[in-house]
Each structure stands twice: as structure tokens, then as C-alpha cells.
Amino acid sequence: MALIILGHPDWEKSLANKEIVNGLVNSEANVEVRNLQQLYPDFKIDIKKEQEALLRHKNIVFQFPFYWYTMPAILKQWFDLVLEYGFAYGSTGDKLKGKNFIPSFTVGSAENEYKTLGEHHFRIPEFCKNLEQTAYYTQMNYIEPFYFHGTSLNAGYTEEEVKSKAKRQAGKLIKLLKTLE
């Protein structure tokens, strides 16, 4: 069973992330989804409930849209509060040791915009160092991120294109989760 920590700040308007999560939920993969924005619209995260959810699962998927070169605020708040000293790190903080840390996100812009001479100057993996370090620091197994570009309808991508890419990403995640069981 896998835990999906969903950090989308506007779930009702989501296209790509919703398609990915629905693909996981409607598959043979056994998943629990924690939609942070629905659970904690006031950002007052129940630390103990979230830690209990983490303890129930070996595979943790962090699903979110890539916002301003990082994760949305609700997911950052979750990391700041839930991965606390004595639980996730520190002399007695080994509760996540050996669990799989699986980043899965969507990027609005085109892939060619994320390169040294592109509009955003860096490639996507360079923006993921904080995720990798978090996994390392909490003794989790970092799985290379699942992501795809071109989810912004404002940038000219069609709804069908975005949904098709999202379905492929969901399929890749399902395949990974099966191999990690």
C-alpha cells in the first residue's frame, strides 16, 4: 500500500494532478490519498495524524504541481511540521528509515524552457536537490522524480494533451509501486 501526499493548492481546478491521482486510485494499486488542502485549508496540520499515516506505508508519493521552482506552500508546511526532530531525524528520529520517497509532480512550462540558456536557466533535477536531501536526512530511499512538462493550458497545451501525459505518468507510478511492494 502506498501513501499519496497530495499538495495541490487548487484541487478543483487541477487537470494533470487530478488525472494522476485518479489514475492511481482507480488502478489495482492500493493507495491512501491525503489531500492536504482539503484536510487543512487553514494550514493547521495535524502532525500526529500525518505521522501515523506515514508509519502505515513503505512507499510515500509526494504529488504536486511545480510552483515557482519548488512545491506549493501547503506541502512545504507539511514537511516543516510533520518531519520533526525525534520522528524523522535526530538521535531517535528513524521512523522513516528505509521507506521510499517518491516525488511526482507536473511542470506547466515546456521542457526546452528548463535548460541553461532557457527561460528558467536550470534543468528540473537541479530544483529537486532539496527533496533528495530531505530523503537522505530522514534516511529514506530517494526515488528519481516522476514529472512531465506542458501542463499549462495558458501556454497552449490542450486538455487532451495534458490528460494523456498525466495518464502516462500515473501508469509509470503504478508500475513502480508494484515493483516496490
TrEMBL record:
Residues 3-171 form the Flavodoxin-like fold domain. It holds the Pfam family Flavodoxin_2. Coiled coil: none annotated. SUPFAM superfamilies: Flavoproteins (SSF52218). Keywords: Oxidoreductase. One of its GO terms (molecular function) is FMN binding. This is NAD(P)H-dependent oxidoreductase. The lineage of its organism: Bacteria, Pseudomonadati, Bacteroidota, Flavobacteriia, Flavobacteriales.
